[in-house]
C-alpha cells in the first residue's frame, strides 16, 4: 500500500519523544511520525506518481498545526486505543477531500471519516490513553510545502512532490 504523507517537522518528533514516559505502557510506540493525507490500496507506483503529479498541479502550500493529544478508543483498524497528536489544517482537509473524490475513499478512515493526526502509540488501556491525552503541549505550526509518496512495503519515501508557496 502507498500513501501520500505530509512530512512533519522535527519539532513534532521532539514533542513525541517528550511524551515517551507516558507512552511506555502501550503495546506499540511509533518511532516514525507521519501525517497521512490519502492512502492508495493496490496501486502501481509509477502510475500513481504520475496521477498525483497531475492531481496536485497548482496545489498551494498550506498551514498545519498540532493542537493537542487525543485518542481513538475504537479505531476502525488495528489495536486499540490509538493515541495521537491532533492536527488542524483546513488546507489538508480540502486536499484530502479532493483526492478522495478523484481516487476514492477507503471506508471507515477516509472521506467524512478522515481525522488528520500523527499516531504516537496503540494497544493498551483506555486509562493510559486518557493519561497521555491529559498532558499539556505547546502547539506546533508549520507550512506544508511538500508531500511524500510513502511505500509501506519498504517503509520508505518513494517520491516527493513540491507544492508552490
From TrEMBL:
Keywords: Ligase. It holds the Pfam family 2_5_RNA_ligase2. GO terms for molecular function: ligase activity. Gene3D superfamilies: Cyclic phosphodiesterase (3.90.1140.10). InterPro entries: Cyclic_Pdiesterase. The keyword Ligase applies. This is 2'-5' RNA ligase family protein. It comes from Haloferax chudinovii.
Amino acid at each position: 500500500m502507498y500513501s501520500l504523507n505530509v512530512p512533519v517537522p522535527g519539532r513534532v518528533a521532539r514533542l513525541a519523544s517528550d511524551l515517551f514516559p507516558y507512552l511506555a505502557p502501550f503495546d506499540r510506540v511509533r518511532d516514525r511520525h507521519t501525517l497521512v493525507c490519502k492512502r492508495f490500496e493496490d496501486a502501481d507506483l509509477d502510475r500513481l506518481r504520475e496521477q498525483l503529479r497531475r492531481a496536485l498541479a497548482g496545489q498551494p502550500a498550506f498551514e498545519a498545526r498540532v493542537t493537542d493529544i487525543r485518542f481513538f478508543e475504537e479505531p476502525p483498524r488495528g489495536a486499540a486505543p490509538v493515541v495521537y497528536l491532533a492536527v488542524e489544517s483546513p488546507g489538508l482537509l480540502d486536499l484530502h477531500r479532493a483526492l478522495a473524490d478523484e481516487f476514492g475513499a477507503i471506508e471507515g478512515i477516509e472521506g467524512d471519516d478522515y481525522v488528520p493526526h500523527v499516531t504516537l502509540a496503540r494497544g493498551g488501556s483506555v486509562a493510559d490513553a486518557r493519561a497521555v491525552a491529559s498532558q499539556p503541549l505547546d502547539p506546533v505550526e508549520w507550512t506544508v510545502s511538500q508531500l511524500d509518496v510513502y511505500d509501506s512495503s519498504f517503509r520508505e519515501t518513494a517520491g516527493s512532490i513540491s507544492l508552490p508557496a
